[in-house]
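Students often ask why we bother encoding 3D structure as a string. The short answer is that it lets us treat folding as translation between two languages. Here is a chain of 122 residues written in the first language.
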Amino acid sequence: MRSGLLAFMAAALLVAGWPAAGQGLGWMRGHTAGFFTDADWQLLEETLTVALNEAADGEPREWRNERSRAQGKVTPLVSDTRADVTCRRVRIESAARGTSSSHRYLFCRRGEGRWGLGQPRD
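And here it is in the second language, the structure alphabet:
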């Protein structure tokens, strides 16, 4: 399984300094994300940060905005640490206004730094 993750990491976008928290989630793909309110984005961002920092592989973290009725789930799928770089592949599922989407992303961080989308540059 590690060789599969390494191959995935090698093919991942190299987006240095693109933190998961604090910079918004404008990179997220899918039609569903276009229906999110600011509060939905905030809930997703908070849930993503908790999932990356605390959830075990396969352990989903869910969010729901009662006002907009949007909801979603963040599930870490595979984690790997090499030297001082930790990477986690996650599935982000979301639903809003009768649409739904599910996409996989790779997040990595160096040491205890901030999570970023893709593999960090040296």
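Translate back mentally: The longest strand covers residues 71-82. Keep this in mind for the problem set.
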